[in-house]
Amino acid sequence: MLWTERILKYDHTNKIGNQGDLIKHLTLTVAISRMAETKHAFTYLDVHSGRARYDLSDSGEWGQGIGKFAGHCAENAQLPEDLAYFYDVQSLNRVNRERKYWGSSRIVLNVLLDQGLTDIRMILCDTDSAVCRDLKEHYQDRLLVAIHCMDGYRKAYDTGGVDLVLIDPPDISAHYTEFTALMGHCLARGQSFISWNSLHGNSIQQGMSSKCLSISRWADESGISSFSVRWKKGWSRQMCGCQVLFSVPGAGRVADACGDLVKLMGWSTVES
C-alpha cells in the first residue's frame, strides 16, 4: 500500500508536551537559535506539523514532560544556558498555570522571532484536515506560512531552499521506510534536518527494537549526530524513550543541551 493511500489519523492531544516532546522541542530551540545567528532569512519545513497550539488536559502526559521540566526550572537558579533559554523563550513559566503549549511549528517561530529574523518562511504539512484548518487559522496573518494538507514526505522531496526539515513521524513502525529514506535523501543533498522517533524495546525486552537500533547505527555510520534517551526503567514494546538525529550546524551544542536535560530530569542515555 502506498503512503498516499495510507493517510493516518493521529491525535497527538494526549501526548503533547510529554517527555519526547521535551527532547524534540529543546533540540529544535537550540539548533535554530544557533542557525539563526548567521542568517537573515529562514525557511522551515515540517513533514508532520500537528497543531500550532494545544490545550493541556488533566490526564495528559505533559505533566511528566514540560510540566515537570518547568517545575525543576522554577526551583533551579543555576540552569545551563540553553535550558534556561528554552524555558524563557517558550514561556514555560506559565505552562502549569495556563495549561497551554505550543506545537513544533510555533516553537520554531518563537525562536526565529526572538533571534530577530523577520524574513521567515514556513512550510507545514499534515494529512489531517482538522489540523490543517487549525494551522490556517493560527497563521492567517503570516503571509509566508504555507499549509499543505498532504503527504509531507513528498513535499520535502519536491521543495528546495529549505534551511531545516523536521521529520517527526507519528508511528515509526508504519513510517519506517519513508522516514529513513527521507533522512538519507537529506544527507545526500546536504540538507540540514532534525528527526525524532519513539524508542521501543525488542521482542524479548532486553534492548531497543530492531528498527530503532538500525536508525541509531545508520546515524553512527553516516556521521550524523544522535541522542537516545530512556525515561522508563527496563524495556517495553510501548514507548519508553526516544531518539533524535540532527544534521545541523552546532550539533555538539545541541547534544550538550540534551545531556543537560537528561541530568535535570533524572533520565538515562542509551548506547546503540
Structure explained in plain terms:
- The longest helix has 17 residues, at 19-35.
- This protein has helices at residues 19-35, 66-75, 81-89, 95-98, 104-114, 129-138, 152-158, 172-188, 210-222, 251-265; strands at 41-46, 53-55, 100-102, 119-125, 145-148, 164-167, 193-199, 225-230, 241-247, 268-269.
- 42% of the residues lie in helices and 18% in strands.
- The strands form 2 sheets. Strands 5-4-1-6-7-9-8-10 form an 8-stranded mixed β-sheet, sandwiched between helices.
- It has 10 helices and 10 strands.
- The chain is α/β, with parallel strands linked by helices and 272 residues long.
- Helix 1 crosses helix 3, helix 1 runs parallel beside helix 5 (104-114) and helix 1 (19-35) packs antiparallel against helix 10 (251-265).
- It has one domain (11-269): Rossmann fold (3-Layer(aba) Sandwich), CATH 3.40.50.
- Mean pLDDT is 93; it is low at 1-10.
- Strand 4, helix 6 and strand 5 (145-148) form a beta-alpha-beta unit.
- The protein is globular.
Task: Show the helix and strand layout.
Blueprint: H1 19-35, E1 41-46, E2 53-55, H2 66-75, H3 81-89, H4 95-98, E3 100-102, H5 104-114, E4 119-125, H6 129-138, E5 145-148, H7 152-158, E6 164-167, H8 172-188, E7 193-199, H9 210-222, E8 225-230, E9 241-247, H10 251-265, E10 268-269
Parallel strand pairs: 1-4, 1-6, 4-5, 6-7
Antiparallel strand pairs: 2-3, 7-9, 8-9, 8-10
